[in-house]
Write a structure and sequence with these properties.
The protein contains 17 helices and 13 strands. The protein has 494 residues and is of the alpha/beta class. It has 2 domains: 261 residues, Hexokinase, domain 1 (3-Layer(aba) Sandwich), CATH 3.40.367; 146 residues, Nucleotidyltransferase, domain 5 (2-Layer Sandwich), CATH 3.30.420.40. Helix 9 packs antiparallel against helix 12. The longest helix is centred in the N-terminal third of the chain and has 44 residues. The model has no long low-confidence stretch (mean pLDDT 90).
Length: 494
């Protein structure tokens, strides 16, 4: 009897061991599949120095082509008509209106010249009622003008408008516009949820000016810009060595200072010498050297603009979290990353926003508790193993660093176009002003942009290159450009 019991125990133990071994093999196979997805992602996203140099070279070539002829490049290389950047000599009260989404900001600044610089500034932020985003143009512009009039009415005694002078406004309008002068441009189409057909093809400055007149507000728009050019203006005001600006936020773009006589497609309209700011619209850059994955191709195919803004879809905050989601979904479906069932929320596009990705990527706790908490909050995954959380961090790391490397390659392309990628004997500084939440708040991303650019340029050249955070370019930059292009500028220079 004892022998029978012992045999039964032994048999049960053998079954238990077999089940354990089978479970371990199943787990090993599951993790093997997840690791295979990760390895393939890493391989497809690889951006070694040689490849990044090819991307930079392609960027420079496209810049030349875009300047040579209209439609000659995927880069629009738009003439901004900004031929005067702030010098620091500007004085007086200037206003800015920043319209680029469902909110807009109004700002006023008192400039005091070289000695006083920015003496004082105030701003207000106003939400646009949803019905005005799809209504008539007069109603929208009247609402904006009315809000601006109220803001002007609150101008305190600390702001001193010179006697006999008209108030002047810099208008940041971050929608597609065909610029026709420093203070005029026709709207190509509304984006970001706006749908007001009657203004398409109209001059947006004229529309705003009419609305200001209807409000009884005597104000002249002296500069029409986008946020990237505003960042360049604000950066130049603080540092005379700023020659380019880059937006790395929800979207991405770049602008830089070009010699006017290097712009053949517009040579009849521009001065033969001097500087001109070029709005690159670099989000639309595309090259065979860009490291694309199946996830990028699927995202692009399912987007509202397939085949367009390819560079932006690889590096901007709008898309990085979504790329991570798509990778994790494949791991969940093929390797049961989050258990036997795929979390339903993981199938929802854009549910993983880039700020969440940044929080998980930057988690330095030993047990990656922030990663676990975010997976629970975002996807409803109640518990995860440390190995799962590490895999999630690894995915974030690969996607974010590819984006940062490609952003650095784009900056290198601008430097190459300007001849600033080689040693100069006088050690002249070259400063790139950068704005955007992706660069400002995603520490690992920002550090990777800077370290990659240093690696591409080499020690001698990189010692003269500075990347500088320039916050709120779309606001203060617009006011500064209103001052730099003031209708009273020539009289002040006499």
């Amino acid at each position: 009897m004892r022998k029978a019991a012992a045999a039964a125990v032994a048999a049960a133990a053998a079954v238990g061991v077999a089940l354990l071994v089978r479970r371990q093999l199943r787990e090993a196979k599951r993790w093997g599949r997840a690791d295979a997805v990760l390895r393939e992602l890493e391989e497809r996203c690889a951006a070694p120095r040689a490849r990044l140099r090819q991307v930079a070279d392609a960027m420079a070539v496209e810049m030349h082509a875009g300047l040579a002829s209209e439609g000659g490049s995927k880069l629009k290389m738009i003439i901004s008509y900004v031929d005067a950047l702030p010098s620091g000599e500007e004085k007086g009260v200037f206003y800015a209106l920043d319209l680029g989404g469902t909110n807009f900001r109004v700002l006023r600044v008192q400039l005091g010249g070289k000695e006083g610089r920015v003496i004082k500034q105030e701003h207000d932020e106003i939400s646009i009622p949803p019905h005005l985003m799809t209504g008539g143009s007069n109603e929208l512009f009247d609402f904006i003008a009315s809000s601006l009039a109220k803001f002007v009415a609150s101008e305190g005694e600390d702001f001193h408008l010179a006697e006999g002078r008209q108030r002047e406004l810099g208008f940041t309008f971050s929608f597609p516009v065909k610029q026709t002068s420093i203070a005029s441009g026709t709207l190509i189409n509304w984006t970001k949820g706006f749908s007001i057909d009657e203004t398409v093809g109209e001059d947006v400055v004229t529309e705003l000016t009419k609305a200001l007149e209807r409000q009884g507000l005597d104000m002249k728009v002296t500069a029409l810009i986008n946020d990237t050019i505003g960042t360049l203006a604000g950066g130049r005001y603080d540092d005379n060595d700023v020659i380019a600006a880059v937006i790395l936020g929800t979207g991405t773009n770049a602008a830089y200072v070009e010699r006017a006589n290097a712009i053949p497609k517009w040579h009849d309209l521009l001065p033969k010498s001097g500087d001109m700011v070029i709005n690159m619209e670099w989000g639309n850059f595309r090259s065979s050297h860009l490291p694309l994955t199946e996830f990028d191709q699927a995202l692009d195919a399912e987007s509202l603009n397939p085949g367009e803004q390819v560079y932006e879809k690889l590096i901007s905050g709008m898309y990085l979290g979504e790329i991570v989601r798509r990778v994790l979904l494949k791991m969940a479906e093929e390797a049961s990353l989050f258990g036997d069932e795929v979390p339903p929320k993981l199938k929802i596009p854009f549910i993983i926003r880039t700020p969440y990705m940044s929080m998980m990527h930057c988690d330095r706790s030993p047990d990656l508790r922030t990663v676990g908490a975010k997976l629970k909050d975002i996807l409803g995954v109640q518990s995860t193993s440390l190995k799962t959380r590490r895999l999630v961090v690894d995915v974030c790391d690969i996607v974010a660093k590819r984006a940062a490397c490609l952003a650095a390659a784009g900056i290198h392309g601008i430097l190459k176009k300007l001849g600033r990628d080689v040693p100069n004997t006088d050690k002249q500084r070259t400063v790139i002003a950068v704005d955007g939440g992706l660069y400002e708040h995603y520490t690992i991303f920002a550090e990777c942009v800077e370290s990659t650019l240093r690696d591409m340029l080499g020690e001698e050249v990189s010692s003269t290159i500075v990347i500088k955070l320039a916050k709120d370019g779309s606001g203060i930059g617009a006011a500064l450009l209103a001052a730099a292009h003031s209708q009273y500028r020539e009289a002040e220079e006499l």
